Amino acid sequence: MLCISSAILAQENSTSKANVLFISIDDLRPEIGSYDSSIAQTPYIDQLASEGLQFDKAYCQQAICGPSRASVLTGIRPETSGIFHNYLKFRDVNPNVVTLPQHFKNNGYETVYMGKIFHHGDLDDEKSWSRLPAYDSLTVKDIVKPVGFALPKNVRERQETRKKMFEIYGDVAKYGLASGVAYEAADVPDNTYADGYHTDLAIATMNELLANQKKPFFLGLGFNKPHLNWVAPKKYWDLYKRDSIALSPHNQPPNHGAAMGIHPSFELRVRSNIPKKGPIDKELAITLKHAYLACVSYVDTQIGKMLNALKDSGEYENTIIILWSDHGFHLGEMGIWGKATNYEVATRVPMIIWSPGMKSRGARTNALVELVDIYPTLSELAELPLPKHLEGQSFAPLLDNPKLDWKKAVFSQFPTPALREWGAYPLRPAMRETFFGPLLHEVEENIKSQQKENWDRKLFEHNLMGYAMKTKDYKLILWKDITNPKASPIFTELYNHQTDPDETTNIAIENPELTAKLTLQFKKGWHGNKAKYKYP
Asked: Residue 256 catalytic?
């Protein structure tokens, strides 16, 4: 039976096209109250979930900032775009691609962003944005530009460490080796740091747009936290009691899992107050999780400010709102602190949508969806034509019926996490001469011990890709040589999410028939696992 989404019909009856508020969050796993977190204090995201539709099974296409954001904003998967690390600009490989905000701009929208929407290096894509934010409004209010650290001792420490790293290691130090301390709790106003500043700027920009409204707007508000460094005003740290913060009991790599799938937390270890090798002790681990939670609550409050300003403006009922994170984050699970794996905790993300006229308010759905689906969904809800290059599927029908039979599987990928720098960039030879050297030697020996005759440095450092497929009940990870895609996988992982949701044991070897069945499903690709829905 063909049907047209009530969210779209509502917009047809409106006097103007719906606006879009596009909220991206960096490194946020579903550590949110509405996602059943037992500790996170996130009342404003919870409220949005209670008014919109929450996706409990949403997945990124690669658990690292650049490739994930490129897939969201171009609608192209990493396997097609070739963007597998943070140092490749999407225009360098796809110069003529029409991005999501560009598509709205081309169809009569004012498009503007604050904060982190694209990854650094792609942020100011001139084809995507029609105007600048309302910087003058903040200048009039004597709001100064944000800082990375508010405490003078942390500013000095970062400067001194940076100087020392360059003296010892040379140019390679610029690739994150002098990132400062991992966390800060300063008694400062919210707009001291970037996320509070950008929220103020977004509100000022929205008000300016509405005061001179001739077009609907596509407003991107991108939050940097809870990405490292975990800096947040002290009042958000004070929301949590240290003795109430529990650590994951699953702090070891999966039994029989892929040695190359586990990295030694490179991203965290470049911070000054973090040990360069060995385990993270319990007391430090609690502090780190405390810092992460403080950042989550800090961002939640900024989202509340933005949503309240939108309601006060009278445009809330004429605005499509989508909130999403670019990937998840390990907080000690599997012994990892960071993203950059194919496992559930890194690839599963929070995503919530609100749209005028939608029927399923306050609902949750277990439908499998992907971040690459955002582009066609927003286009459909705004009644824009769908560009032919898109590799996602609109989930707009779920806004009316969250229980629709949907995708059979979703897909993520990551190149050898254990032997990549923390931006997923292939190892530079000079990096082995830094304090990463002992860590790299340790993980390399683990891989050699497991893979034996399969070991080949060029393969494992440059050409090995882990392809993950998530179905309703299972996670399959195939480790394949990208130069020989038809060859059998070098290694296979299979996790039963019915009995082992934390992915503690790889059951591929003991379940050959199931593994073969799921491998056949994997070979159908994203095309063969789409929802069989008849769009009007």
From this structure: no
